[in-house]
Amino acid sequence: MAGSSGYVVEETCRLTLTSNTLSFSLAYLHLADHLLQLFSPGTRHLVNESLVSVLHSHLRHLEAAVRSQEPPPPPAMVAAQAAFILDSVLPLAELRYSERTQVECPKLAKLHSNYCWLKEGSRGASVAKYSDPNYV
User: Fold this and answer.
1) In a domain, 88, yes or no
2) Distance (Å, rounded) from C-alpha 30 to C-alpha 27?
3) Which contacts of 110-117 are long-range, i.e. CB under 8 A and separated by 24 or more positions?
4) Separation of alpha carbons 113 and 88, rounded Å
5) pTM for the model
6) What pLDDT score does 66 carry?
7) Whole-angstrom distance, CA of residue 102 vs CA of residue 99
8) Total domain count for the chain?
9) What's the average pLDDT block by block, 10 residues per block, for the chain (136 residues)?
10) Is 9 a member of any domain?
11) Owning domain of residue 113
């Protein structure tokens, strides 16, 4: 073990996530697990809409932070939160969904493409976004 310290790279494996992002992520994945336990042909629509609408609401919360006229959070901080949700939490929820149902949920995948601009850390003024709230 004495020689293993040469393999440790400090400060490179660090996530700067807010407690809100961590709490949401944990709660959302628990929600997904519980909803998928209720999944059946009769509840498919309810489960799909619940999974999508909860995540969509959180992404809109991040979008509001980017567009806020109040003192906004640093763009890099919002980008890190969005990247974690879109690149870690969403794929995990999609994987759990497909494992349980043997099919994909296209509306979950659509969220990534509609909100990937949040990961860029811009204020969104010149960034095109999906503006129709009824797309889901």
Assistant:
1) yes
2) 5
3) 110/135, 111/52, 111/55, 111/56, 111/59, 111/86, 112/86, 115/59, 115/62, 115/63, 115/82, 115/86, 116/86
4) 14
5) 0.76
6) 84
7) 6
8) 1
9) 51 75 96 96 95 96 85 83 95 96 92 92 47 47
10) no
11) 18-120
Q: Are 97 and 108 in contact (CB under 8 A)?
A: yes
Closest CA to 115 of 93, 92, 84: 84
Non-local (6+) Cβ contacts of 86 within 8 A are 59, 111, 112, 115, 116, 118, 119
> Residue by residue, what is the 3-state secondary structure of the chain?
CHHHHHHCCCCCCCCCCCHHHHHHHHHHHHHHHHHHHCCCCCCHHHHHHHHHHHHHHHHHHHHHHHHCCCCCCCHHHHHHHHHHHHHHHHHHHHHHHHHHHCCCCHHHHHHHHHHHHHHHCCCCCCCCCCCCCCCC
10 Å Cβ neighbour count for 9? Answer: 7
d(CA 73, CA 58): 16
Longest dimension (CA), the chain: 58
